[in-house]
Amino acid sequence: MGSFRSVLPAFLFFLLLGGGALLGGCSFAPAGADDEREKLAKMGEPYEKPIEQRTVPELPAAASWQEVLRRAFLANAGLEAAYFEWQAAVERIGIASAWPNSRVMLGYSFAFGPGSMKAFDRMTFAAGIDTMQNLSFPAKVAAAGQVALDEARAAGERFRAAKFQLQERVLSAWADYALLAERGRIQREHLQLASLTLDTARSRVQAGGPQDDLLRAEVAHRTAADALAVVEAESQAARSMLNGLLARDADAALDPPRTLPAPRPIAVDDAALLAAAVDQNPELAALARQVEGRTDALARARLEWLPDIDPSLMFTGSLVQVVGASIMLPTTIRQIEGGIREAEAMLKASAAMLRQGRRDRGATFVATLVTLRDAERQAEVFATITAVTTRIVAIVRERYAAASASWLDLIDAQRLLLDARLLLARARTMREKRLAELEALMGTDIETLGATARGDLP
Questions:
Q1: 79-98: per-residue pLDDT in tens?
Q2: What pLDDT digit, counting tens, does each position of 334-355 carry?
Q3: Pairing, β 104-110 against β 98-99
Q4: Which of 321, 268, 298 is nearest to 127 (CA)?
Q5: Do 136 and 303 form a contact (C-beta atoms < 8 A)?
Q6: What is the CATH number of the domain that holds 96?
Q7: Does residue 360 lie within any of the structural domains?
Q8: d(CA 138, CA 91)
Q9: Taken in order 394, 400, 401, 402, is the CA torsion positive or negative?
């Protein structure tokens, strides 16, 4: 029995040491943390490898808007940064919910002096909690983990917002690029008409016609040539900006669409669009998660009234065995009360931001939707005008063939048609840009509206 008692303190010491090692892997992770990690892992597949080892698909010279958008999602560094900020927030869940939150302190001393004491009895072993950081009550750790989860969910919504903001920028830039290409085609036809008019004026002057007609024709020709040069320069600049969004060299080849892309259909009514904007807007969702986080932060601040307990164990050989605990009373009353009031103020601020955000996003959505519908109306009007003008050109051409209309009448009719085509192209481009803005406000793609919103990278 005596030998057992002499070994018992050492056994307890090593038991505490082993228990501390096991507790080092303990966690009070909140419910939902694993789901957030799974969601993060699914979204992060494109970013698993370092950028130097990734294979980002190259764009063909004549790319579609879907290929352009996919390239942006895979290569844009701003979106990647938003993902890793989300990842960091998810990792903070484990940090906040880990327990024990304090390090285990181990001590050893050996007593020298006269006497016939055994060497083991001269040894003192101690184990306890780091005096620089108290061992938190488990409820406090669990509450801190919940706050971290709320912050991670908010970061996930910010990533989704960044994804749709990038989508809006890319689709708007692509629409502008397509419009510039259409303007270039129209302006080349204007230049051809101006060249024909100039040739006609020269012939008239040679036949004794007025000199001022030739001068006006030359001015019109130079103006048309300059307008074409301006459009070509703007198109090159737009290509450079679009390549920047796609993480490509500014002068990389990227052909615009050969024709203005067809309008993307909207299969739901305005009420469904507005409902989606209210329910799925990523910025509002991030604000809502922030409110949840600050609600939980307030609950965590109130838990500061609970005391912390620091256990300790010490024994000197087989002579003395001490097991104790230190209770850390919440005597910093003003700090605790101040922390609670701060958490309440931050919660009220977040609630106010969410309330105002809903109004702002709602107003922005309605204004954007009105602009989109007006662009659709204009497109219908200009499509009708274009069809009528096309018929006018055909009639004037028939009259010109019958010598009942002049060459200039035919040229004027063709110019009227080109102007109508340009107005139609601008209205359709405006509609596509506003549609991309609506998608960013809704946080979902218009093609998937009515089904489960696609949140992963396409």
A1: 999 999 999 999 999 888 88
A2: 888 888 888 888 888 888 888 8
A3: unpaired
A4: 321
A5: no
A6: 1.20.1600.10
A7: no
A8: 19
A9: positive
